[in-house]
Amino acid sequence: MKKKIIALSVITSIIASYIILPMDAYADSSTLAGFRAEVEQYTAELQEKQDKVAKNDQEVAEIKARISEIENELDTIVEEIGTLQVEIDKSNQEIKEKSEESKKIIEYYQVANGENAYLEYAFGATDITDMIYRMSVVEQLTEYNDKVMNELDELIAKNKQQQKDLTTKQKQQQDLQKELESERERINADTQALKDAMPAIQEQIDSAKENVEYYESIGCGENENIFSCQIRYDQAHASSGGGSGGSGGAGNVIPPSASGFYRPMVTGYVTQNWMNYGHLGIDLGNRNYTNIEIYPVATGVVFAKYYDSAGALVLKIRHYVNGRYLYSTYAHLSAWYVNVGDIVTPDTVIGRMGSTGNSSGPHLHLEITTCDWNRGGGCTWAQYQNSTLNPRNYIGFPSGLYSWWYSK
User: Are 250 and 61 in contact (CB under 8 A)?
Assistant: First the structure.
């Protein structure tokens, strides 16, 4: 899609409004020594996370072992409860049988001697000795019945209390098991979060190491400002660029000075602003996303292109503004049409809008920064996050969200 022509007066006003950078835009002072310190910091951070993962794994192993013990204890409790229930049922049966036996004895005497069988039996003695004997028999019979009944009642009460205690213990063990399961899930979630962060940390370590090697190779002093060193080196070894390919930094290709900033699409609208919930760039959309061509926001040289860790196609361009470098990033592309080292202008189609990587739908994520964390970009990832600038300060986007524009 061809860029729509804008009147010269409009271009002039845009340039005048957006070409001047804030005074503190390049306030950081990255050095080679700083990159070395970042490598050490990230390495220590990675080691700390690895140690935490190992500790979590050990805790999970201990929790698994304890859960296994609890499961065995619960099985034993269930068996004991079953055994006690059998004993209770047996005791109940014995009480029933003894009750029936006692009832039959009493009924027998009642049938044989009338309603007052015990009394008649006792007073039916022929002499005092016989009476004492008979009284003893009656007393023993009564005591026996009472004793048997009491013993069986006590046994049942004891068994029921034991069953109650076991049921209580079973519930306590089950609650403990749930608590341990919840703790295991929490630790596993923590471990997964740590593991998810590790690739990013490793990527930062690798990037910082590459930058250390790069700035050593171009002769930067240990405490020399990286940006000054880069400009000095590029001016001394300037080339005309022209498509070196690959995914690394653009090296010593100095782009022509940027003469203005433009929208990266002919038509579209803003869907999310800069620093909205920590958003490092600005998101741009267009309903007809399958055919939306993406242009550089200013003249520059393709600095890097790659797939990020989430699979997004990312393109970065280095711009030369007021004697300093500025970087623009274009993410979630569906295609790219330029190579590292290519000189591009606002009329160059560099790619197409897409939804690659961590994206909820087709859009262009645009960032403008004073440095870049890729090789030769002059900063670490942490510094990069603090170097982002509001694209609205350089590009004339409509003030509201979802307000269309119809020209670059």
Answer: no
Place of tokens 């008979």: 134
Radius of gyration, CA atoms only, the chain? 44
> Structure pTM?
0.61
**Domains of the chain (ranges, CATH numbers):** 8-30+240-393 (2.70.70.10), 51-199 (1.10.287)
Q: Which residue has the tokens 């038509």?
A: 267
161: pLDDT confidence band, cut at 50, 70 and 90? confident
Q: How far is residue 52's CA from residue 72's CA, in Å, rounded to a whole number?
A: 30
Q: Cα(99)–Cα(364) distance, rounded to whole angstroms?
A: 90
The amino acid present at 260, given as its one-letter code, is G
Kindly state the DSSP code that residue 21 receives in the 8-state scheme.
P
d(CA 234, CA 255): 10
For residue 395, how far is the Cα from the chain centroid?
35
String of DSSP letters for 214-276: HHHHTT--TTS-HHHHHHHHHHHS-B------SSS--TTBPPPBP-----SSSSBEEEE-TTG
- The DSSP H or E segment spanning 343 is strand 343-344
Residues 4-35 pLDDT 10s? 333 333 333 333 333 444 434 443 458 888 88
* Rounded CA separation 273/275 (Å): 6
Q: What is the pLDDT of residues 59-107, one digit of tens each?
A: 999 998 888 888 888 888 888 878 877 877 777 777 777 767 666 665 6
The rounded mean pLDDT for the chain is 79
pLDDT of residue 80: 81
